[in-house]
Amino acid sequence: MMDLVILIGLGGLLLAAEIFIPGGIAGLIGIACLIGAVIVGFLDYGPEIGALILACVFLFLIIGIGLWAKYFHLTPIAKALTDKGVIGGASIDDRTEELLGAQGEAISALRPCGMAKINDTRVDVVAESGMIDQGEIVKVVAVEGFRVVVQRLESKSNKETTAVQESTS
After folding, report:
1. pLDDT by residue (tens digit) across 70-95?
2. Which of 11, 46, 119, 140 has its CA 20 to 30 A from that of 131?
3. What is the Cα–Cα distance from 85 to 143, expressed in whole angstroms?
């Protein structure tokens, strides 16, 4: 009877250890111990005790999986392993509010994707329509998850023309 207790206890401990030791080896060995306990129960103690052990092992696994699914995400281990939706120090929602409506300059040609400097930060952007040349002024019109959509506000040639007109006045 002691061998059953040892196999079931070891199996449970190894399955629990799988949370801390990723890779599946501890879990597989734990399941093998539980299967071994069921086999020992059938061979050494007959079909009635074997069936009882099998039912207890299934009950143990179902309760364990249920408790794990319900409470594991609340543990410090799970919180350390899960994504918090943070990109570059700010959440996606914070980034949306910060970027929407902001103006910047295309620091590469947008064909239609490229880089722009918005709020003193380099941002991967997508042109809303057409291509935008390097140096043109752009405005953020949409932020869809990781996709930042911009449109041309002022072309490079308009800036140069304005600068020439101001210098001649």
Report:
1. 888 888 877 777 766 555 555 555 56
2. 119
3. 15
